[in-house]
Amino acid sequence: MMEVPDRPDPPHQADEFGMLTAFLTYQRQTFAIKCAGLSTEQLRTRAVPPSDLSLLGLARHLSDVERSWFRFVFDGEDIPPRWDPQARPEVEFAVQDADPDEAFVAWSEECARADEIIAAAGSLDDTGSYQDQVYSLRYILTHLIEEYARHNGHADLLRERLDGRTGD
């Protein structure tokens, strides 16, 4: 399962690139903290049925978010989603038989690959595209920070429901 990561605060002063990447790292580490120390059963626990939302589902979803935005949209890799959406809409949230270790390894690998892509970019103004829409790296980083912040709110509520733990 997840270990509790070291999570330093983002810098109070930095250039735009440094600030955006630090906040993305902070949000990723926050999600890892929310999932650390839980059993497979706890990670699979749905928030409020009939919702399929669970911490394990969020890990699978965030893995695909990282994969699609950085590798597919920005870097132009021709890769499928990790979990086949043709099998079931929102398949990443179907976790009754999902392996937490597989999901968190996939998420960690996608974050690491995204970091490599970000580091190789020449500028926040570099672009990728999807369906005739052009996205700058600045947009993608900002969107990912927003995506993690929203799902970290969900994760906070899920964790509180599981064991009463709240906060960062």
Automatic annotation (TrEMBL):
<dbReference type="Pfam" id="PF04978">
    <property type="entry name" value="MST"/>
</dbReference>
<protein>
    <submittedName>
        <fullName>Mini-circle uncharacterized 19.1 kDa protein</fullName>
    </submittedName>
</protein>
<dbReference type="InterPro" id="IPR034660">
    <property type="entry name" value="DinB/YfiT-like"/>
</dbReference>
<dbReference type="InterPro" id="IPR007061">
    <property type="entry name" value="MST-like"/>
</dbReference>
